[in-house]
Amino acid sequence: MRSAGWYLLAAALAGCGSQPRGVKLDLHFSTSCPATPKSYDLQCVEALEGQVLDEDGVVLSSQCNELSSATFVSAYELVNSTELVPVLENVAPRAKAMIGLRGYHARLSDLCQEDGLMFWGRSDVIDLTDLDLTRVDIDIECRDDCDCESFADEDPACPLAFGETQRVCAPTFECGKSCDSTPECWDSAAECVDNVCRPLAPGQMCDDCFSANDCGDGLACVRHTTTSPFVDETFCALLCPAEGLTACPGRMGCLRVDGEELTILP
pLDDT, tens digit, for every residue of 163-173? Predict the structure, then answer.
């Protein structure tokens, strides 16, 4: 996962008998986001949605915030903006919670609707009652198939509706990569056994598969092929974006199933 700097957002935590206070959200790009954030066009993003989720990923509250036209020209400006943008206000204190963030275009429907999703993510579980809490880290996934410039060019490979294509959490290289320790295996989403990343259990992420029947709930059997470097493997992969806005495991991205490099097997 690449840290892409920070972006100022205000989450006012309303404490009992206390004044609301601001918390900064630091955004970090996953591998589904561009290697060069300055080239990823976000001029069509018209709304940010802040969310509070419980520890199981259930949305407790949300706030849709309309943005002025072309607030962010690129992903670089998104994570390096010094403008204070409130995305969550009057948040009730909660000992175990997660903060979610989504960005949308609105060329198909009203603001903050699923079809317009451009990027999304959420934090780890945090304590909103902690008076020393001043910043929250959020891992961000991006649409890997297109950005706002692609919409302007009417690229046929880039549908306006986010939900028209399936996506899975996939690595840029092999699922069963070499390793020295379990944390190197997609942030411990798999385990390191004999210096190779192996699935935590049968049917789980990175387990070998021949069909969907070989994979557990919420996973698909995916064939992953590339020519440079050469990769030809099939494995169980998480469907994404998952319930509760979770980002993919470290150094994986939420990638579009294109029928070429990534194919879902029935």
Answer: 767 788 877 66
Domain map (residue ranges) of the chain? 2-164, 167-265
What does the DSSP 8-state code read for residue 247?
Answer: P
Note if the pTM is more than 0.90.
no
* pLDDT band per the 50, 70, 90 thresholds, residue 213: very high
**Long-range Cβ contacts of 144-150 (<8 Å, 24+ apart):** 144/32, 144/33, 144/253, 144/254, 144/255, 144/256, 145/256, 145/258, 147/34, 147/40, 147/41, 147/42, 147/118, 148/41, 148/42, 148/43, 148/44, 148/45, 148/105, 148/118, 149/41, 149/43, 150/41
Task: Say how far apart CA 25 and CA 22 lie, in whole Å.
Answer: 10
Q: Return the percentage of the chain with pLDDT > 90, whole number.
A: 5
